[in-house]
Amino acid sequence: MPHKKTEHQLSQSKCPIARAAALVGDPWVLLILRELREEARRFNELRNAIANISPRTLSARLKFLEQEGIVARTVIPETPPHVEYSLTEKGRALVPIIAQLQEYGETWLKT
Amino acid sequence: MPHKKTEHQLSQSKCPIARAAALVGDPWVLLILRELREEARRFNELRNAIANISPRTLSARLKFLEQEGIVARTVIPETPPHVEYSLTEKGRALVPIIAQLQEYGETWLKT
Predict the structure, then answer these.
(1) Entry's Pfam families (chains A, B) (predicted)?
(2) Which of A41, A67, A81, B81 falls 20 to 30 Å from B38 in CA-CA distance?
């Protein structure tokens, strides 16, 4: 999520692109979507899979995505119990955008 | 562009999605792409078309996009001369992502 004030302003916009930009106009959000598009993940699995993300940032982004209905947080009742994060239907609808970012990166942003 | 350090780290990633996220993981970049996808624009036209963007932020994002080869800055030799910004071929390749954001916003982020 972009800066709080910016994110709020954009999310109220009449323009659907601006509303979507308020949601995904953030690299960490895009990388969380990358990780969750295949399967549910635990916090530490996400933390290890996304280079350079701090626990604080990851926690804030997961909370934001949960509030926006993009990510579901599920307590798995095993021993010991643990928490998993997964995409909701609203979240899964963002997966084609991640696929396009991949294609763009492979074509235009070669290392 | 995300925070400088984050942007730099991500742009060096082996992952094409991370490299693309370094470029478009920013709401202002996404809205500049929205404006330039139809036609070339002047600075003030962009400023008026993107609600809540400051001149300083707009200038910094245009400079970033120019350095990344996404936007071309052209001096139009009229009287008086003026500057126009337009998408390069590398920039135009991002337009399908903007179209998908529009579709997502219309479907899932109704006001």
Answers:
(1) HxlR
(2) B81
